[in-house]
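Reply to dn_fold:

You asked what the input looked like. This is it:
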Amino acid sequence: MRVGGRAAFVMALALVGCRSRPADPPAEDAGSPPPPVARTALPDCDALLPTDDRELMLPGFTLTQERSCPTCAPLCAFRSESEPGVAVSITWDCNTRYSKADVHALMAPTLEAGGVEVPALGRGAVRRTPAQGMSQVLAWDDDTDCAVVVTWLGGETERAVDVARSALIATTPAILDAGTAPGDEADAGEADGASAP
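and this is what came back:
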């Protein structure tokens, strides 16, 4: 009996393994759009968070760019002289799997670890408190394949949700793909027109 039970268990694991393998990609239809191009790098903090957006989001804070990786944007760190005990960081993680994944599955690990869901923020968002006086918000954008991570240390940690909302609004496909803020092209055109006789 025991041997038969083990055999059934091994067979069940094998079947689950077969089902969990990714299927072969479907044959491309001539009328279907091409798959999205993978980004090799993301823009820097100045492009992702233009000055006007930063001033509205975090007035009086100064920005420093600390690091970057192939799929994530630089770590945009903010400090304020008037609030020396407050530190805020924002980063983006862009991955095509986010746009295809069930948002509840993406949120599940944080929720299971004691986080709470943040309503009406992107495709989905969760907030957690990794340490006393710290709040972290992870939000998945609804019009790009990016997740935004905001970490707030000290002061009014509940403001992390507002910062995540502002960062999601500023995150657009045009900025991610071109690395230019909206209006830069118009400003350049106006400057050219203004200098012409």
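The beta strands are 61-65, 76-80, 87-94, 116-117, 124-128, 134-140, 146-153.
Hope that clears it up.
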